[in-house]
Design a protein that fits this description.
Helix content: 25-40%
Number of domains: 2
Number of strands: 10
Number of helices: 5
Radius of gyration: 18 Å
Order of helices and strands: HEHEEHEEEHEEHEE
CATH superfamily of the largest domain: ATP-grasp fold, A domain
CATH architecture of the largest domain: 2-Layer Sandwich
Oligomer: single chain
CATH topology of the largest domain: Dna Ligase, domain 1
Length: 227
């Protein structure tokens, strides 16, 4: 399962980061990992299907988890049914190989979230380390990452806690003040784990806040602050 290995040479950067997060008792989506370089064979296929059944999920999300320390982005495939799981894992592995990379495959329960997005522990545009930036949309639709539609933008001043929002309709910001506060606390804890500025993909599912992905914000010198 996701808490069984922390070696990025085995579970890739995404898998290792999820392990670090889970150790802190922050919530990640239930799942398991196909180790990097592991061939999909008959016996392993049965083991994978049994692991999927233990998730008690109708479908899964698959993410490539690269072992290259410079590669933190991951291909994401949602809504994978049990019958298509083995072939889709093989596709992710082969696609990584075509890029000249080796990847583990993270398999997680597919959530139908109410809200999702990305939160940055410092402003990635201005590189202001005193600002937290939240990008948010309704549903689990990846529109924040894909750029397919405008997102709510929420800035939080770390020193004062002041919140500024930007939306097509400010009165219709998709997140409540309580959810914004929870995301604020979440990213400060995540940054304290990795000891560097980070971006984290997140979602709210049935009121629960999950971390989906964590990656570093490059070219920013980290100045620690207390949590």
């Amino acid at each position: 399962m996701l808490d069984e290995c922390s070696d990025p040479e085995i579970v890739g950067n995404l898998g290792a980061s999820l392990y670090q997060i889970k150790k802190t008792k922050l919530r990640v989506v239930d799942g398991f990992i196909i180790p990097a370089g592991q061939n999909i064979e008959y016996g392993l296929s049965n083991e994978i299907l049994r692991a999927f059944d233990r998730l008690e999920a109708k479908s899964a999300v698959l993410r490539a988890s690269y072992i290259d320390p410079k590669v933190f982005d991951s291909e994401t495939i949602r809504g994978v049914k049990r019958d298509d799981l083995i072939s889709t894992i093989s596709y992710v592995q082969q696609n990584a190989a075509r890029r000249g990379d080796i990847a583990a495959v993270v398999v997680q329960k597919n959530l139908q979230a109410e809200f999702s997005g990305t939160i940055h522990s410092c402003n990635p545009v201005t590189q202001d380390q005193n600002e937290i930036l939240i990008e948010a949309n309704i549903w689990m639709n990846d529109t924040v990452l894909s750029g397919d539609m405008d997102s709510d933008m929420i800035l939080i001043n770390k020193s004062t806690g002041a919140v500024a929002v930007e939306s097509n309709e400010e009165s219709e910001i998709c997140l409540t003040p309580e959810q914004i506060s929870r995301l604020h606390n979440l990213i400060r804890k995540v940054e304290s784990v990795f000891k560097k500025p980070v971006s984290a993909d997140w979602c709210f599912d049935n009121g629960r806040l999950y971390i989906l992905h964590v990656r570093p914000i490059n070219n920013i010198t980290h100045e620690r602050y207390e949590i």
